TrEMBL record:
Domain GGDEF: 245-381
Keywords recorded for this protein, A-Z: Membrane, Transmembrane, Transmembrane helix
One term under GO cellular component: plasma membrane
Keyword DNA-binding: no
InterPro entries for the chain: Diguanylate_Cyclase (IPR050469), GGDEF_dom (IPR000160), Nucleotide_cyclase (IPR029787), Rev_trsase/Diguanyl_cyclase (IPR043128)
Chain ranges passing through the membrane: 21-40, 46-67, 76-96, 102-122, 129-146, 158-177
GO biological process terms held by the UniProt record: cell adhesion involved in single-species biofilm formation; negative regulation of bacterial-type flagellum-dependent cell motility
EC number: 2.7.7.65
Catalytic activity: 2 GTP = 3',3'-c-di-GMP + 2 diphosphate
GO MF term set: diguanylate cyclase activity
Keyword DNA-binding: no
Protein name: diguanylate cyclase
Amino acid sequence: MPPGNPGSDSESRRYCARLNYTFVMFAIAGLSCFLLFDYFEVPNAWQLLWAGRFLLIGICLLCVFLLRRNPQNPNGIVLFGAIASNLFFCFGAAMIDNVIALSLWNLSFATCMLIAMPAWLVWGWRYQLASSLPLIVFYIPIFTWLSPLQLTDLVGAGGAYLMTTLCIAPALAHARFSTFQRTVMLRLALEGRNAELNRVNQQLLTQQHELEYRANHDLLTSLPNRRFGLEFFEQVLLDSTRVRRCLSILFVDVDRLKHVNDSFGHAEGDHLIQLVAEGVAQAAGDQGMACRLGGDEFLVVLPGACDMASQQAATQLMRRLQERRLREGIAFPVDISIGRVTHDPVLQSDVDVDDLIQIADDRMYRQKRARRRAAAGLSDRQA
């Protein structure tokens, strides 16, 4: 971080610009308040002092505009106004011919520019020293040249206080700047730590979601696994019993999977499983769920589906699989056997999940055996 820059990030510069903007507005108010001082305490030169004050107010308004327009260099903008103010202070002090008025002038201006400024602004001792250079270089020469008073009058009229504050001001500015630097560094470190914690937390959440997904889904088909599917089935059955609504299930078994594995390879067998998985997922729709029970068996839960709707779902599932086989030119057979069960809580007694699955499993095997006998009879007739 550069010595005169309170913060390398834009947020620190904006904060510094807001502080400087507030201080310049405070300076404008202070300059306006001292117009009456000029008129009553410096009657022989109040016109010149007023002209200087109004010019200085204009410079401060320009600083305000620049701070609002371009807050990237707030300290340089305020330094311009501070140098102009100190030059005005040097010339204004030389216009005063009253020791008491000169004391008030020195005390008020020194308190504002050499105590309030370094305690308020965040710009480091170098900027503070640069803003005080007009006082250091020009104050005594201009006073000696233009003032009707003597240097001994200046010493008693706040000169000692002025010199003391000239020494104190850079130390105050350095202390303020160092505190601000540490604050910025701590804030940046805290933001970095928070970002790291957020990143780690996001990684943990991602890992948790992945673990939950792996725990609840079959990796080959991306369908819910047996545990997750049966939990859903059990909840749907409870809801169906409570509201007296029909419920249907399809117990799907892939035919001739072993033949596909042996004849076409296990990769094609996995492809067959995935094809059927996509089909049963489509058959389940938005309200239902399809899960892989294991191996070549799938379960489709159809909440609210009556017997006719389940029959239609089973027929569409088998038709879609055959259409896809023809459309994609799949060499191996894509055949399934389906056992359907519809439970109507109004007409039937209460059952559990295992009962319905067992009934569907029996019906599926009856369909499979019937198809085998039909295929065997067709072969005998052809022979």
